[in-house]
Amino acid sequence: MLLDLSEEHKEHLAFLPQVDSSVVAEFGRIAVEFLRRGSNPKIYDGAARKLNVSRDTVQHGVEGLTYLLTESSKLMISELDFQDSIFVLGFSEELNKLLLQLYLDNRKEIRTILSELAPDFPSYHSLEWRLDVQLASRSLRQQIKPSVTIKLHLNQNGDRNTQVLQTDPATLLHLVQQLEQALEEMKTNHCRRVVRNIK
Amino acid sequence: MEGSSEPLLDAKTKVTNQLVDFQWKLGMAVSSDSCRSLKYPYVAVMLKVADQSGQVKSKSFEMTIPQFQNFYRQFKEIAAIIETV
């Protein structure tokens, strides 16, 4: 699968052949560091002064390189497809090799970072329960009604959420049965086949 | 009263929320995940409150018996003061 680079993107990347390959390697390092920890615009000012170009030129160059790396990593394109995709930029063979190496060296880490951008559903953290007996209410006195109170602790986006739920023992048993049935599904032939193929 | 910020205690207007329902129950916790044998009585209250747009929200909370007795004392005091108004 080839990358389709927009005209604007190609313009931004056109800065790269105008500098030393050591500078391109440094830009690559900065790009990955920005992906890890967020961008730090002060770096652009320093680099612009040293290279004697405008700050925008440096920023676009680094951002263009970042986008090239993230798109390639996102799609997991092959070495050959990467080389063919950047061929249209008309860079020197040395620069092409450098870019390919940047891609291959950082692909795995970039994919790990990108995987964290998927939407985060609330997930299970822990569960507390309590067995209660209701003795009276506003509408009825002299009762003996068992119920289960559950405090469900969930994680979402790093925060903790708590839900308090209440049910009677019969419904709880039904709930447990349903969950056991769901687990049983993992043992069916169909699920086994899917899991084997994913591995 | 110019510039006063006292809420008008007229249940028809200007009170931000209205109490729609007050349900309660008395229960006894007999077992939990952290303690297998309990004898813990409590009062659980569920309030239904309507805001100015009419939307009803539920809020529930529990009280231990001492907490409930304190709660009850507040209302006894309010009732006593109303008698004198």
Automatic annotation (TrEMBL), chain A:
<dbReference type="Pfam" id="PF07258">
    <property type="entry name" value="COMM_domain"/>
</dbReference>
<feature type="domain" description="COMM">
    <location>
        <begin position="123"/>
        <end position="190"/>
    </location>
</feature>
<dbReference type="InterPro" id="IPR017920">
    <property type="entry name" value="COMM"/>
</dbReference>
<dbReference type="Pfam" id="PF21672">
    <property type="entry name" value="COMM_HN"/>
</dbReference>
<dbReference type="InterPro" id="IPR037354">
    <property type="entry name" value="Commd2"/>
</dbReference>
<protein>
    <submittedName>
        <fullName>COMM domain containing 2</fullName>
    </submittedName>
</protein>
From TrEMBL, chain B:
<dbReference type="InterPro" id="IPR047155">
    <property type="entry name" value="COMMD4/6/7/8"/>
</dbReference>
<protein>
    <recommendedName>
        <fullName>COMM domain-containing protein 6</fullName>
    </recommendedName>
</protein>
<comment type="similarity">
    <text>Belongs to the COMM domain-containing protein 6 family.</text>
</comment>
<dbReference type="GO" id="GO:0051059">
    <property type="term" value="F:NF-kappaB binding"/>
</dbReference>
<feature type="domain" description="COMM">
    <location>
        <begin position="18"/>
        <end position="85"/>
    </location>
</feature>
<comment type="function">
    <text>Scaffold protein in the commander complex that is essential for endosomal recycling of transmembrane cargos; the commander complex is composed of the CCC subcomplex and the retriever subcomplex. May modulate activity of cullin-RING E3 ubiquitin ligase (CRL) complexes. Down-regulates activation of NF-kappa-B. Inhibits TNF-induced NFKB1 activation.</text>
</comment>
<dbReference type="Pfam" id="PF07258">
    <property type="entry name" value="COMM_domain"/>
</dbReference>
<dbReference type="InterPro" id="IPR017920">
    <property type="entry name" value="COMM"/>
</dbReference>
